[in-house]
Specification:
The protein is of the alpha/beta class. The protein has 2 domains: 158 residues, P-loop containing nucleotide triphosphate hydrolases (Rossmann fold), CATH 3.40.50.300; 69 residues, no CATH class. It contains 10 helices and 10 strands. The strands form 2 sheets. The protein has a 6-stranded mixed sheet, sandwiched between helices. Strands 2-1-4-5 form a 4-stranded antiparallel sheet, covered by helices on one side. A hairpin with a 2-residue loop joins strand 4 and strand 5. Helix 3 runs parallel beside helix 6.
């Protein structure tokens, strides 16, 4: 589905990614783990066309994405929910969702999908006419995810969807991620919560200083002494 090969990227003279490669198969949840500054968000920006790599290639469903505009990538079936929610604070919940469907022409389908996500996120339905900036952090995160889904993506890039949320909301976000995946959406998930992320992922990649340090099946990484020492606490 997605094949990323030998990606190098930088901001000005500062190199952020050094030959990162990754693959996602249809129907998978793939986790991208690593400390702050490891290059995770930069990697997602390269995939979704927000940042041009200095070298390497991104192929989605057999078609190269290098140099393709972000809106064309969305039309191709990929959506990126960036870190920090980034909802339109002065616009209503309804308008935010409509903006998520900006590439679509099927008005009836858009309306149907909005009601579908109001079913998945009932609090958004209750606040449909409320300005997004007045929502709680958890509600804004739900809105950001729902807005990303409005383009009907086959691949959803989620960057720290549970960041800064209360534990009960964190679990709710993880449940929603699993439900979306079960409904057919493939997911590339960037998260700090290694335990929870590996528990729902099929496979995982660990970035360190812009390089893939470890990769493999999630259940294998949960048992890896290196991963346990670095990310899950010392081996007993």
């Amino acid at each position: 589905m997605l094949v990323v090969e030998d990606i190098h990227a930088q901001y000005g003279k500062v190199k952020a990614l050094h030959g990162v490669s990754l693959k996602i198969k249809e129907g998978e949840i793939v986790a991208l783990l690593g400390a702050n500054g490891a290059g995770k968000s930069t990697f997602l920006k390269v995939i979704s066309g927000m940042l041009k790599p200095t070298s390497g290639s991104v192929t989605f469903r057999g078609k190269p994405l290098n140099g393709v505009r972000t809106d064309r990538i969305v039309i191709a079936g990929m959506a990126h929910v960036p870190e920090g929610r980034r909802v339109f604070p002065m616009a209503t919940v309804m308008t935010n969702l409509e903006m998520g469907a900006f590439t679509r022409k099927d008005k009836a389908g858009v309306k149907k999908d909005i009601e579908r996500y109001f079913d998945i996120f009932p609090v958004l339905g209750e606040r449909r006419n409320q300005r997004a900036g007045t929502l709680s952090g958890g509600e804004q995160q739900m809105l950001a995810i729902a807005r990303g889904l409005m383009s009907r993506p086959s691949l959803l890039l989620l960057d720290e969807p549970a960041m800064g949320l209360a534990p009960i909301l964190v679990q709710e976000i993880y449940n929603i991620v699993q439900e979306l995946n079960a409904a057919g959406t493939s997911i590339l998930l960037v998260e700090q919560n290694v335990h929870k992320t590996l528990a729902i992922a099929n496979r995982a990649y660990v970035l360190e200083c812009g390089v893939v340090a470890i990769n493999g099946r999630a259940e294998e990484l949960m048992k890896s002494e290196e991963v346990i020492k670095c990310y899950l606490g010392e081996v007993s």
